[in-house]
Automatic annotation (TrEMBL):
One Pfam family here: Transgly_assoc
Transmembrane regions listed in the UniProt entry: 6-24, 31-53, 65-84
Keyword tags: Cell membrane, Membrane, Transmembrane, Transmembrane helix
Family in the record: Belongs to the UPF0410 family.
Protein origin, superkingdom: Bacteria
UniProt GO cellular component terms: plasma membrane
Protein name: Transglycosylase associated protein
Bilayer disposition of the protein: Multi-pass membrane protein
InterPro entries listed in its UniProt record: Transgly_assoc
Subcellular localization, as worded in the UniProt entry: Cell membrane
Lineage: Bacteria, Pseudomonadati, Planctomycetota, Planctomycetia, Planctomycetales
Species of origin: Rubinisphaera italica
Chief location category: membrane
Length: 87
């Protein structure tokens, strides 16, 4: 993966993290960097969940199902992080 791959993952992670923070009710006290990490980790969680449910191959970053699963994964990570932070 070259520099453009890393940049595209960062942009994708930032978008997914921002969508997850917008959808999740309540206040999430995190900056842009944590939003980016949330989106990237959420994408991996969503991909893992997707591979458990489906046997189909991935079609790249513009796959709508990949975006949806990434957002679901980011919401799950955000929920768990919120619960751990309150403890």
């Amino acid at each position: 993966m070259g520099i453009f791959g890393v940049i595209s993952w960062c942009i994708f992670g930032l978008i997914i993290g921002a969508i997850a923070r917008f959808v999740m009710p309540g206040v999430q006290a995190m900056g842009w960097g944590m939003t980016l990490i949330l989106g990237i980790v959420g994408s991996f969680v969503g991909g893992a969940l997707s591979s458990l449910v489906s046997t189909g191959g991935s079609e790249g970053i513009v796959n709508p199902a990949g975006w949806v699963m990434s957002i679901i994964g980011a919401l799950l990570v955000l929920f768990v992080a919120g619960k751990l932070q309150k403890s």
